[in-house]
Amino acid sequence: MRKYLMIAVALLLLSGCQESLEDRAAREVVEYTQKYCPQKLNDFTTLDSLTFDKATLTFTQYLTLSGNADNAERAREMNGQIKEEMVQAVITDTSQKRYKDEGYSFRFVARSQKDKNVILYQTTITKEDYQRSR
């Protein structure tokens, strides 16, 4: 009987140590940012960092745009097209499946390389955006 009681107590203690999905997300973005950022994604885009907001369940990618992409007027003109490309990127990203299944959001903030105070583009992709094609 004592053996079963010890097993039950051990299981109870171990089950309390599991990391929540929110805690996992927060930990993973810190680890990814420390290990891989800044990361050149293409000739015009650098991923500077990632963050996660537990209160809103939102991942944020902070990007810097350079070269031809570093143009506020062009970014405004292409706002709709950029958003649709971001939605498609979230839809096809299988590495985020667990978070998408839970309805997390994905925010993108792109700043100018010429002037870091200038936000060229920002959008948030919600579950309504990436689940609409299901």
Task: State the main characteristics.
5-stranded mixed β-sheet; 6 helices; 134 residues
Oligomer: single chain
- The low-confidence parts are 2-6, 8-15
- H/I helix tally: 6
Structural class: alpha+beta
Backbone shape? globular
User: Main sheet?
Assistant: 5 strands, mixed
> Proportion of β residues?
25-35%
Report helical residue fraction. 40-55%
Instruction: Write down the Rg.
Output: 20 Å
Spatial strand arrangement across the major sheet: 1-2-3-4-5
Strand segment count? 5
Roughly how many Å apart are the termini?
52 Å
Reading the helices and strands in chain order gives HHEEEHHHEEH
- The overall pLDDT average reads 89
Structure description:
Strands 1-2-3-4-5 form a 5-stranded mixed β-sheet. The radius of gyration is 20 Å and the shape is globular. It has helices spanning 2-15, 21-36, 72-77, 79-92, 97-101, 127-131, and strands spanning 39-40, 45-53, 58-65, 105-112, 119-125. The chain contains 6 helices and 5 strands. Residues 2-6 and 8-15 have low confidence and may be disordered. A hairpin with a 6-residue loop joins β4 and β5 (119-125).
Short description:
The protein has helices spanning 2-15, 21-36, 72-77, 79-92, 97-101, 127-131; strands at residues 39-40, 45-53, 58-65, 105-112, 119-125. The chain is an alpha+beta fold and 134 residues long.
Ordered list of secondary-structure elements with their pairings:
Layout: H1 2-15, H2 21-36, E1 39-40, E2 45-53, E3 58-65, H3 72-77, H4 79-92, H5 97-101, E4 105-112, E5 119-125, H6 127-131
